[in-house]
Design a protein that fits this description.
This protein has seven helices and eleven strands. It is of the alpha/beta class. It has two domains: 145 residues, P-loop containing nucleotide triphosphate hydrolases (Rossmann fold), CATH 3.40.50.300; 63 residues, no CATH class. Helix 3 runs antiparallel to helix 4 and helix 3 runs parallel beside helix 5. The longest helix is centred in the last third of the chain and has 16 residues. The termini are close together.
Length: 219
């Protein structure tokens, strides 16, 4: 599968990707190329391998085949600098407030003004009055918004988001859709897993379905 964007060099390439966990083949021979400007909504039933795929693309799982992020092999420092993976129920540092997360992790992202951009996303997600709260005092939805604000503020070329709309309210979901569309339009690439039909219908890019081990028909 190749998702065209600007026609520039691919931001993500997976060639003959195969992942086996516990002796079970989860992904087999998967091919994926995302160019700048690409936005893909990934659907599939539980157990199809959506989370496994995102983690393998980020270089967090052992795999066979080749995965490159902006030309760097997945898992390398150069590749990690070009992407952000936000898992479902993203982990946070329990001894940092929401505002400290945004400011500190924004600066670590390396992008100029990433900390202020992350704080702006916190405001957009309705977290402005929670910036002095620690993660233990935040609901699951607020924690998810914080993790997404950090990722969007850092704006790495490639965003890999696993069920990012889970636990988000309608306004936050709409804001996230717009933010991801803007990210792709600015030359980034987005791969998102999700199951919400109403949001999928408003998705600004292509759709793909993942069945156990392989791609199914594309829309």
């Amino acid at each position: 599968m190749r998702v065209s964007g600007s026609g520039a060099a691919p931001l993500l390439e997976a060639r003959d990707l195969r992942v086996t966990l516990g002796g079970v083949v989860i992904l087999d021979g998967l091919e994926l190329t995302l160019e700048a400007g690409a936005a893909v909504w990934l659907e599939g039933p539980n157990g199809a391998g959506k989370t496994t795929l995102l983690r393998a693309l980020a270089g967090l799982l052992p795999s066979d085949g080749d995965v490159f992020v902006s030309g760097a092999r997945a898992g390398s420092q150069a590749a990690r600098a070009q992407l952000r993976l936000v898992p479902d129920s993203a982990p946070l540092y329990e001894d940092l407030t929401a505002g400290e997360h945004a400011r500190l992790l924004g600066r670590i992202a390396g992008r100029e003004n990433a900390d202020s951009a992350a704080l702006a996303w916190c405001e957009r997600f309705g977290l402005s009055d929670r910036l002095d709260h620690y993660p233990a005092a935040l609901s699951r939805g607020m924690r998810q918004k914080l993790a997404l604000a950090i990722a969007l503020g850092g704006a790495p070329p490639l965003l890999l988001l696993d069920e990012p709309f889970n636990a988000l309210d309608a306004d936050a979901g709409t804001a996230l859709l717009a933010g991801l569309a803007d990210h792709a339009a600015a030359g980034g690439a987005v791969l998102v897993s999700g199951h919400q039909a109403d949001l999928a219908a408003r998705w600004p890019g292509s759709h793909r379905r993942l069945q156990a081990g392989h791609w199914a028909g594309a829309e």
